[in-house]
């Protein structure tokens, strides 16, 4: 917290610099002490949560630096003794937001390069991912300070072109992963139903499908009532197009030809895509400016504040899911997952039995465990447990390293996704911003942000439709 509160003071000359540096060091030292007490994170989930929190803090700082409101509050807390300036430049506005997010993006870019090729926590470089939190916080804060010594022209070009391209790539990646989640969820439920003839899974699948369709139509009705009054052509068009495409993809998902080439396609996937795209459309019309008197939430102060808070929470959850899902899937660069066990007897002519003399007692035990896992006598993670016991992966405090046998996700790709996330945050905050604003800035309340969400919903529908039609159009590539 010391680092967060003192961040804008870091670039203040003389006393302000000394005060802020001390506060930052105290904050980093406190975090380092906590992390030293806990040791390097043994849980991959804990590591991912820590990076998500870092992104959250960075995003909040960026939001506060949109207008001079936060800086004036800090000056007031010092009884106006400290005049905040950043190397002779303004500490707020478009360029300041780009500086802060560029600093975190550079931090993740360097980590992605350093962690290329890490396959398990046995690699010494894995400590860079799961540990050294104190030094990493100091490096992040140092990058933020150093950005204020870079000419503003660089960040103007960065924000207008490079960050914008990265933001669009991040949005597209999120849509692809959403469609993948829809297929994965439905197929997983179907597998459980087929394996166990489970009534519970059948109820869950049918109930969730009906629930998501109900939510989609309920949101559509609410949008027509509150955001599609006379004269609101943009809202009327967006809501109507969403409803029409929703009905089309639902019909396509159960079409006999699609079912023939993709038997697992169905209403469950269509329901998840529909509810997400309808939510994007509702978010777009509810976050647009009220120039045409088409957004009653802007005039309802309490409701408006609640919608801003809800939107921020959903945005952060979406970013956290996208980064985690992309990393664990291993897009482009696939990590060596500890759960990717090879099956015995996959090749033609193999009988699945151990037919070679193991070279050591440890190898004999490993072969026996593999055979037991393949036969279904033991769970797949028994191999991890065995590996952990043999290599003494206990951290001395009862913690278990879940990446001893292989990383749960690709470290380098993980940081690339976070790099893209910083470009999305910067673009979301600065597109069509109000340069005259002096109070707390709204996040995403621009026509640009609304149209991004509307077009994103259309693109998501297109991606899902292609996932249904691709096996029909190219049966040779999707024969399995």
Q: Can you tell me about this structure?
A:
The structure is a single chain. The protein has 480 residues and is an all-alpha fold. It contains 18 helices and no strands. The longest helix is centred in the middle third of the chain and has 45 residues, at 152-196. The chain is flat. The protein starts with a helix and ends in a 7-residue tail after the last helix. The model is unreliable at 1-39, 330-355 and 387-398 (pLDDT under 50).
Summarize the entry for a quick read:
This protein is mainly alpha-helical and 480 residues long. The protein contains 18 helices and no strands.
Question: Topology of this protein?
Answer:
Blueprint: H1 2-6, H2 15-38, H3 44-64, H4 69-77, H5 94-114, H6 126-130, H7 133-147, H8 152-196, H9 199-227, H10 233-253, H11 256-261, H12 267-286, H13 296-299, H14 301-329, H15 361-375, H16 382-391, H17 411-430, H18 447-473
User: Radius of gyration, rounded?
Assistant: 26 Å
Sketch the topology as an H/E string, one letter per element: HHHHHHHHHHHHHHHHHH
The number of helical runs is 18
Query: Regarding quaternary structure, how should these chains be classified?
Result: single chain
Which runs of at least 5 residues are low in confidence (pLDDT < 50)? Answer: 1-39, 330-355, 387-398
Anisotropy-based shape: flat
How far the N terminus sits from the C terminus, by CA atoms, comes to 53 Å
Largest sheet: none
**Helix-strand makeup class:** mainly alpha
**Total E-strand runs:** 0
Level of helix content?
A: 55-70%
Chain-averaged pLDDT = 74
The amount of beta strand, in percent, is: under 5%
